[in-house]
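One thing: can you check what follows?
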Amino acid sequence: MKKIDKKVAENYFRARNTAIIIYLIIWFIVSYGVVLLAEPLSNISFMGMPLHYFMGAQGAIVVFIILLFVNAVVSDKIDQRFGIDDKMNETISAGKHLDH
């Protein structure tokens, strides 16, 4: 097993945690921010519907799906930046099973 420098591991998890915090902030704004601001947003229409209604009905789900894809792409880029290779890990661990 390859040992990882502690500083590199800390930087890796800091980058991953920063991305997760950003996703949670976006999730909170889309989920609760739109509901809390429903009254002022009722004057804004999107696709013929009031914005708060659209976000509650479809917009939040669309944003969450987009966040999933963005998370996958950003996570892969972070892994590449820190030299984590999934194919190499599969090759190293092939045939090894843990008995619990």
About this structure: Helices lie at 6-36, 38-41, 51-81, 86-93. The first strand starts at residue 45 and ends at 46. The radius of gyration is 20 Å.
